[in-house]
Amino acid sequence: MGLSAAELQAALPYALQRVDLPNLGPKREGKVREIYEYEDSLILISTDRISAFDRVLGVIPFKGQVLNQLSAWWFEQTRDIVPNHLIAVPDPNVMVVRRANPLPVEVIVRGYITGVTRTSLWTLYAQGERRPYGIPLPDGLQKNDPLPYPILTPTTKAPSGAHDEILTREEILNRGLVSKDLWERIEAIALALFQRGQERAREAGLILVDTKYEFGLIDGELVLIDELHTPDSSRFWLAETYARGREPESYDKEFVRAWFAARGYRGDGAPPTMPEELIVAAAARYIAAYERLTGQPFVPGEQPAVTRIARHLERFKEEFLMPVSRRNK
Q1: Where are the domains of the chain?
Q2: Burial 58-86 (b: 16+ CB within 10 A, else e)
């Protein structure tokens, strides 16, 4: 399973940098996704862009396909815990979702103390902080140690190019970002999702270390939005390489983030250029994570992706997204 290094090398020129489809209307560009609004739906196109330190750092071939298909798989696996916004997956890189009102908080659940970013639990702890995010932690923890229990460490949802800011539970409630009753529901759901993710990761020989969830409201109903348990939104370690005092092998974008951090880059100024060997290795890890978690082989979408995406979306738009008045004629 997986793709060979030679196949990944050959795919480098086709990495999906951006998608422009004017016939779909105005586009919003996120760090990784192109977002089109169509009636009461959103069309989310996952590109191969990779972001870290709140910056876009380059492109990784097949990354967008992995994120899109893996999120769709997880959404189906967790519908019994919380509804989500997914309507359809008309293309390996495309998700059509219901339009939601996003809540202004990113919900991060952590099972281990680790990380290299300025808001990571280990960075704060190593600087002497013993109540990061308002949560008391014991002395004596080492990097990558398991926490006594999973904890929630929320942040703001910063616009592209800006940094997320740390939030405590009290700040969320005092600032009225989310009501108390709704936040308590979110806390319970996030911990249940994390438990489900850890269970599946364990079966796949991985450790789900931490992850990010985003929630929104559709007609007043709480739903899960964005992505779920992907190598972009989550940290996965290869279980067999985990031991106290050593760095486990990562199956997520921490592999790329650590490369930049080792060269002194943490989001300020122009980032160094990723070498081809780093890009190929990152692509292989994304694909391996997909295959381990889903138990399914990764099948690359037809290249070039832009042509394929345009064709599939035109067909889907004509058959499923046309106005009801036309559909009923």
Answers
A1: 5-327
A2: bbbbbbbbbbbbbbbbbbebbeeebebbb
Position 160 confidence tier, pLDDT thresholds 50, 70, 90: low
Residue of 210, 235, 248, 282 lying closest to 58 (CA atoms):
282
- Span 299-322, pLDDT tens digits: 999 999 999 999 999 999 888 766
- Report whether pLDDT(221) > 80: yes
Predicted model pTM:
0.93
Give the separation between CA 59 and CA 64, rounded to whole angstroms.
9
Q: Which amino acid is at 316?
A: F
Question: In Å, how far from its chain's centre is CA 88?
Answer: 18
> What Å distances lie between residue 197 and 142, 187, 191, 208, CA to CA?
24, 15, 10, 7
CB neighbour burial string for 138-168, b if at least 16 within 10 angstroms, e if fewer: eeebebbeebeebbbbbbbbeeeeeebeebe
Which amino acid makes up residue 289?
A: A
DSSP 230-262: -TTTEEEEEGGG--TTSPPPBSSTHHHHHHHHH
Residue 42: enclosing H or E segment and its boundaries? strand 41-46
- Residue 49 CA to residue 56 CA, distance in Å, equals 7
Task: Select 5-327's CATH number: 2.102.10.10, 3.30.1330.40, 3.40.640.10, 3.30.470.20.
Answer: 3.30.470.20
Residue 180 has pLDDT above 80, yes or no: yes
CA distance 11 to 15: 7
Q: How far apart are CA 79 and CA 69, in angstroms?
A: 16
For the chain, the maximum distance between any two Cα atoms, rounded to a whole number of angstroms, is: 70
Give the whole-angstrom CA distance, residue 130 versus residue 121. Answer: 10
| Torsion angle of C-alpha atoms 215, 34, 278, 260, degrees rounded to 10 | -60
d(CA 157, CA 137): 25
Q: What is the pLDDT of residues 228-285, one digit of tens each?
A: 999 999 999 999 999 998 999 999 999 999 899 899 998 889 999 999 999 999 999 9
